[in-house]
Amino acid sequence: MNTTLSEAYRDHPLHLQHIIPLEFSSFRTLPDSHAWPQSNDDNDHLTSNGSCIPIIDLKDPNAMEEIGLACEKWGAFQLKNHGIPLNLIEEVHEEAKRLFSLPSKEKIKALRSAGGATGYGSARISPFFPKFMWHEGFTIMGSPSNDVKEIWPNDYKYFCDIMEECQKQMKTLAEKITNIIFNILGISKEQNKWVGSNNHCEALQLNFYPCCPDPKKAMGLAPHTDTSLFTILHQSQTSGLQIFKEGVGYTTVDPHPNTLVVNTGDILHILSNSRFRCSLHRVVVNDIRDRYSVAYFYGPPVDYLVSPLVVDGSLPRFRSLTVKDYIGIKAKNLEGALSLISTLPHDGN
Ligand SMILES: O=C(O)CCC(=O)C(=O)O
Ligand SMILES: [Fe+2]
To answer: Needs which cofactor (predicted)?
Structure first.
């Protein structure tokens, strides 16, 4: 399965300039290549503006109802009592720290290839923006051992074991969340036989946002929505993730150590016929501390036909298409992808 997700990306190669991150630690000032035009809403860096996404206890009897409301209102929620051991998450962050603190010439040994999916490199959305991001990442689809062996020939196994365990635990949690969400939407077991099998799409993404000399002008991760059904994310104790909400603007998601952020993605937005938002989010950086996050992207297999769920005689707002076709459209159009498959004129929502 993972090979097929990698294959879906192989058809859309990137240029090296959009894969190789800067050697960030060697810059005392922000290079022009990474200086973004400032907008008014950038003034609220690292301040929570009062309105925030709900924290939901997975063990609460009302969890299902709260998840439904959060997906409708925000396209995101934070989850506690999620079942993933905190020490495992901490070890993932420790391993990420071990990897990202290496000099560039070491990390480059595991560079994602132009048409590749796994490995070290800049964010996949980079080519869509005029400036570069203050970010580096490591993407894992399947086992990362071949790439990590290039960096640590005699010491790659611990990293791989931790990442594998993390993917396993994330998958179990993702299946629980999917069952809840499909229950809310009234999607039958027949339509979701892939849930709980090994026939699904998943990717683990380690993100690193180094401390930045001029954070107000820099961008950690530019605004985007995730392509997945949903994404489960853990951020280190440094804030930076912001979610956009109509009428509110960008809202900082404050980190809580034992809480995971769940962001709904494009596939869920299409499946729910726009009932659930796909959260537009970005990451801002700071000049005090490095920031790490780990994201687990989850969704149906690449050959799954994504068809909007129509209820009460409503019309489908998107044409049906396979996950692979959607990945292809998104790889060429990023945020324009939803509008391109919309059945309504001038509407992607
Ligand atoms: O670092 C974060 O908090 C967000 C990461 C993210 O949005 C992504 O990896 O798609
Ligand atoms: Fe994201």
So the answer is: L-ascorbate
pTM confidence score: 0.94
Ligand 1: nearest atom to the Cα of 137: 9
100 inside domain: yes
282 is a catalytic site residue: no
* Separation of CA 73 and ligand 2 centre (Å): 18
Beta strands in the chain (DSSP E): 55-57, 76-80, 119-121, 136-140, 201-209, 221-224, 230-235, 241-245, 249-252, 260-264, 281-283, 291-299, 305-306, 321-322
Give the CATH number of the domain where residue 180 resides: 2.60.120.330
When divided into structural domains, the chain yields a total of: 1
Token pair belonging to 147: 């790439």
Q: Quote the pLDDT of residue 70.
A: 97
State both tokens at 206: 């380690």
pLDDT tens, residue by residue, 212-271: 999 999 999 999 999 999 999 999 999 999 999 988 899 999 999 899 999 999 999 999
Residue nearest to atom 10 of ligand 1 (CA): 226
Q: Which ligand minimizes its atom distance to the CA of 234?
A: 1
Give the residues surrounding ligand 1 with Cβ less than 6 Å away. Answer: 205, 207, 221, 226, 233, 235, 241, 281, 283, 293, 295
3-state secondary structure (DSSP) of residue 242: strand
Does the residue 347 lie in any domain?
Answer: no
With 90 as the cut, is the pLDDT of residue 207 above it? yes
Q: Does 234 reside within a domain?
A: yes
Distances (CA, A) of 85 to 91, 165, 173: 10, 11, 12
Say which ligand is closest to the CA of 203.
1
Q: At residue 1, does pLDDT exceed 50?
A: no
What confidence tier does 14 reach under pLDDT thresholds 50, 70, 90?
Answer: confident
Pocket test for ligand 1, best of 209, 224, 241, 251 (most atoms within 8 A of CB): 241
Model confidence at 107, pLDDT cuts 50, 70, 90, reads very high
Please give the structure tokens belonging to residue 291.
Answer: 């920031």
- Domain extent for 110: 5-24+45-300
More confident call, 349 vs 13: 13
- Annotated active-site residue in 112, 124, 291, 317: 291
